């Protein structure tokens, strides 16, 4: 296998299973996630599910919970123009990719620009959120937008995303601000680095 694996108790039976992600390198097959579980004292493949097409390099696999508390595996991959996350859980006793859009062939709802912000339980409620970045309008019309806010989204068993909170992240300085509910659609952000040579930077 040329990608990643994760050991976790996905079916909540008290024993850990192995989820292995396999990326097809020929371009002719499909990308798969496989669930290995004990059967008669032997670890065997119990079920599998498709991963997104078009991914190249799974860089993170973490366990977390869906919005209903069900355990899930979040596999984040490089994707054309950014990154995406396939979210897998047990459904009817089998591994299932809840975010996979069958028509598009990939997890369309979780596709986003890579800003370096990792998945996190940002509001500490026990549910893992996916950071979806949205660019903010520029202060000047002739300038390109350079700042963004992060919409932190929980995933339910149907693969639907719901926003739990919105933040402004300053990755270079290592801090973030949780935005009040009425701010995200009514703000712009400007960063001034002109005095960075003496250790001063400002964000307005």
Outline the fold blueprint.
Elements: E1 4-8, E2 17-22, E3 32-39, E4 42-50, E5 58-65, E6 71-79, E7 82-91, E8 94-97, E9 130-135, E10 148-155, E11 161-170, E12 175-178, E13 191-192, E14 202-203
Antiparallel strand pairs: 1-2, 2-3, 3-4, 5-6, 6-7, 7-8, 9-10, 10-11, 11-12, 13-14
- Principal-axis shape equals elongated
- What is the gyration radius calculated from CA atoms? 19 Å
**Helix fraction by DSSP (H/I, runs of at least 4):** under 10%
Low-confidence stretches: none
Task: Please work out how many helical segments DSSP would assign.
Answer: 0
Brief description of this entry?
Helix content is 0%, strand content 45%.
Describe this structure in words.
The protein has strands at residues 4-8, 17-22, 32-39, 42-50, 58-65, 71-79, 82-91, 94-97, 130-135, 148-155, 161-170, 175-178, 191-192, 202-203. The chain has 204 residues and is mainly β. The strands form four sheets. The chain has a four-stranded antiparallel beta sheet with strand order 1-2-3-4, with no helix packed on it. A four-stranded antiparallel beta sheet has the order 5-6-7-8, with no helix packed on it. A four-stranded antiparallel beta sheet has the order 9-10-11-12, with no helix packed on it. The mean pLDDT is 90.
Q: Which features does this protein show?
A:
204 residues; mainly beta
């Amino acid at each position: 296998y040329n990608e990643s694996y994760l050991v976790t108790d996905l079916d909540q039976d008290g024993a850990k299973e192995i989820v292995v992600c396999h990326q097809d390198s020929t371009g002719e097959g499909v990308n798969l996630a496989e669930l290995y579980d004990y059967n008669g004292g032997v670890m065997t493949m119990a079920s599998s599910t498709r991963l997104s097409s078009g991914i190249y390099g799974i860089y993170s696999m973490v366990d977390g919970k869906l919005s209903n508390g069900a355990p899930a595996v979040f596999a984040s991959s490089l994707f054309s123009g950014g990154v995406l996350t396939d979210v897998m859980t047990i459904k009817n006793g089998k591994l299932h990719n809840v975010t996979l859009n069958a028509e598009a062939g990939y997890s369309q709802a979780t596709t986003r620009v890579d800003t370096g912000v990792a998945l996190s339980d940002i509001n500490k409620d026990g549910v893992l959120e996916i950071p979806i970045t949205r660019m903010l309008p520029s202060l000047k019309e002739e300038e390109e937008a350079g700042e963004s806010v992060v919409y932190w989204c929980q995933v339910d068993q149907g693969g639907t995303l719901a926003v739990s909170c919105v933040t402004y992240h300053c990755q270079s300085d290592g801090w973030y601000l949780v935005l009040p509910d009425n701010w995200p659609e009514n703000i712009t952000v400007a960063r001034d680095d002109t005095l960075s040579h003496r250790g001063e930077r400002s964000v307005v």
